[in-house]
């Protein structure tokens, strides 16, 4: 008999962990731009100087994080992904990077957690945008239990860290690791699953003779881990990411610069706006990252 | 060493090669000098002290007057000014806080300094400090929408250790009808408009007692001068 467990959302884990961090570390300052601010009402009363809701002012929020970091604080900045990364993009470049200070950015919404909200609330390009800026660590947890250790580690440091939360989660958490975790070994090729696409990757490779690598930390990219995996399989690499297709393709090319290899990338299509609503599962099919599409793609690529 | 107008002109001339006109034309020179000479508690001796006052040059264009003042106050060696804009120099067209001694923020892209200053003031407040944070902007820079997010939130949060000095040399293409001070007042700031070349007026405005509101000092550059604004 299987126990019926009530699962938490990743955002709930974020909220709980932040409330604890605010109590234990006086460096921590939490900034919100209305979204999710309602979860922090009680803790704001306790630490009014360190739990600050700025209203709908995302550009100011990122530069304010930079200003806080200049005084030695550890800003944690949270809102919906497009408004955390795309709208204040120059603030990320200048207010944090160019000032040479750090912050922890935690987003929700991902590429299309709820596609009925439309294009304005979808952020498939966020990780690609961070790739244009030096010094960012990018975590893409695939299960709510992966969130707390990543967040605690990020908050305790000084660097620039992006944590991309999603309402979509794998059935089981993978224990934390700095690089790729080998979940299966096979000879026909190597499939990389990043964060919450693991369930469909495992389903798609159930009968394939493939090595499956998993990570919740895609930047920095584990070049050595990929090289090792490719060293013990045919050099066919499949990259499955829950954001813009091929975002990590250049990292694969860097890792395998001297290894003849083939690469196919899957993720959110770059060639068009979908302009359809519906459910996330519908969009998985549209982008070819559902289990059935991946089964077909991976099987034909490895053949 | 007593720093005189002549010393500043000479320091300025190390960068521009035109010490007579360039320094006099620099729109920011009076505000910068009054701040560093008479207002701010910051010097090479306390630049790492968390209780020091902060000066953030948001309007990073034309930093020569800023570098000259930093040299006059001992943050930068005068000889370093001769290397301005050269490969390997700590001094560029836009200041970089990781390169130039005494420079508190890296700027150049307009509309970042005020929010950085607001963040710093929030950090200092959380630490129980009363240091001032003075941000120098331009009236053209005021066009950038990001300033208006920062201006509104500073007013709502009552950050009375923040001062925005707005150098108004009428360079905003579409102007600010009714004046810049009025925008700040509407957002809950205390705002004063002064002659941006009158040292005593600047000093008076920059040393008002805090009253729970952030403060704006609009420094009008009224006369037309030769050589353009720096």
Q: Can you summarize this structure?
A:
The complex is a heterodimer of chains A (303) and B (230). Chain A is of the alpha/beta class.
Task: Describe the SSE topology.
The complex is a heterodimer of chains A (303) and B (230).
Chain A: H1 10-24, E1 28-32, H2 41-46, E2 51-53, H3 58-70, E3 74-80, H4 81-86, H5 89-98, E4 103-108, H6 126-130, E5 136-139, H7 147-156, E6 160-164, E7 181-184, E8 189-194, H8 198-204, E9 210-215, E10 217-219, H9 223-231, E11 236-244, H10 249-255, E12 262-268, H11 280-287, H12 291-302
Parallel strand pairs in A: 1-2, 1-3, 3-4, 4-6, 5-6, 8-9, 8-11, 11-12
Antiparallel strand pairs in A: 5-10, 7-9
Chain B: H1 5-16, H2 21-25, H3 29-39, E1 54-57, H4 64-72, H5 78-81, H6 113-126, E2 133-138, H7 145-156, E3 162-168, H8 180-186, E4 190-195, H9 199-206, E5 215-220
Parallel strand pairs in B: 1-2, 2-3, 3-5, 4-5
Helix pairs in contact in B: 1-4, 3-4, 3-9, 6-7
Q: Can you give a write-up of this model?
A:
The complex is a heterodimer of chains A (303) and B (230). The N and C termini of chain A lie far apart (39 Å). Chain A has two domains: 155 residues, Thiamin diphosphate (ThDP)-binding fold, Pyr/PP domains (Rossmann fold), CATH 3.40.50.970; 122 residues, Rossmann fold, CATH 3.40.50. Chain A is 36% helix and 21% strand. The relative contact order of chain A is 0.12. Chain A is an alpha/beta fold. Chain B has 230 residues and is an alpha/beta fold. Chain B has one domain: Thiamin diphosphate (ThDP)-binding fold, Pyr/PP domains (Rossmann fold, 3-Layer(aba) Sandwich), CATH 3.40.50.970. Chain B contains nine helices and five strands, in the order αααβαααβαβαβαβ. A five-stranded parallel β-sheet of chain B has the order 1-2-3-5-4, with helices on both faces. In chain B, strand 2, helix 7 and strand 3 form a beta-alpha-beta unit. Chain B is globular and about 45 Å long. Chains A and B meet through helix 3 and helix 5 of A and helix 6 and helix 7 of B.
């Amino acid at each position: 008999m299987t126990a019926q467990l009530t699962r938490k959302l990743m955002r709930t884990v974020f909220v709980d962990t932040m409330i604890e961090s605010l109590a234990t570390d006086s460096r921590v300052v939490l900034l919100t731009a209305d979204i999710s601010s309602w979860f922090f009402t009680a803790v704001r009363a306790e630490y009014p100087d360190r739990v600050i809701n700025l209203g709908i002012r995302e550009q100011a929020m990122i530069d304010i994080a930079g200003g806080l970091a200049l005084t030695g604080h550890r800003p944690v900045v949270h809102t919906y992904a497009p408004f955390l990364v795309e709208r204040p993009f120059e603030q990320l470049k200048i207010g944090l990077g160019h000032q040479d200070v750090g912050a922890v950015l935690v987003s929700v919404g991902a590429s299309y957690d709820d596609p009925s909200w439309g294009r304005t609330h979808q952020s498939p390009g966020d990780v690609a945008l961070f790739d244009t800026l030096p010094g960012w660590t990018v975590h893409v947890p695939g299960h709510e239990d992966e969130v707390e250790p990543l967040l605690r580690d990020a908050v305790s440091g000084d660097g620039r860290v992006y944590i991309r939360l999603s309402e979509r989660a794998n059935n089981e958490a993978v224990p934390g690791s700095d690089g790729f975790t080998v979940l299966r070994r096979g000879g026909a090729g190597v499939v990389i699953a990043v964060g919450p696409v693991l369930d469909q990757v495992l389903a798609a490779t159930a009968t394939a003779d493939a090595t499956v690598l998993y990570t919740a930390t895609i930047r920095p990219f584990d070049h050595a881990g990929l090289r090792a995996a490719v060293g013990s399989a045919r050099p066919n690499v499949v990259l499955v990411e829950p954001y813009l297709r091929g975002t990590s393709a250049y990292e694969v090319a860097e890792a395998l610069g001297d290894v003849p290899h083939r690469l196919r990338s899957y993720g959110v299509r770059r060639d068009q706006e979908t302009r359809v609503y519906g459910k996330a599962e519908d969009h998985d099919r549209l982008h070819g990252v559902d289990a059935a599409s991946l089964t077909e793609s991976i099987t034909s690529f490895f053949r | 060493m007593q720093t005189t107008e002549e010393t500043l002109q000479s320091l300025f001339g190390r960068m521009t090669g035109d010490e007579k006109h360039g320094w006099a034309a620099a729109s920011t020179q009076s505000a910068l000098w009054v701040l560093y000479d008479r207002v701010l508690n910051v010097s090479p001796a306390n630049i790492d002290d968390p209780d020091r006052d902060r000066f953030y040059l948001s309007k990073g264009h034309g930093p020569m007057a800023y570098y000259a003042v930093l040299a006059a106050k001992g943050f930068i060696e005068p000889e370093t000014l001769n290397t301005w804009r050269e490969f390997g120099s700590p001094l560029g067209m836009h200041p970089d806080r990781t390169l130039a001694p005494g420079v508190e923020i890296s700027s150049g892209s307009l509309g970042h300094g005020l929010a950085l200053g607001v963040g710093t003031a929030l950090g200092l407040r959380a630490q129980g400090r009363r240091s001032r944070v003075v941000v120098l902007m331009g009236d053209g820079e005021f066009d950038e929408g990001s300033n208006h997010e920062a201006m509104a939130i500073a007013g709502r949060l009552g950050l009375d250790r923040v001062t925005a000095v707005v150098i108004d040399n009428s360079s905003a293409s579409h102007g600010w009808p009714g004046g810049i001070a009025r925008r700040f007042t509407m957002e809950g700031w205390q705002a004063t408009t002064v002659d941006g070349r009158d040292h005593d007026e600047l000093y008076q405005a920059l040393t008002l007692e805090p009253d729970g509101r952030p403060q704006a000092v609009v420094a009008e550059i009224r006369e037309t001068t030769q050589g353009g604004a720096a």
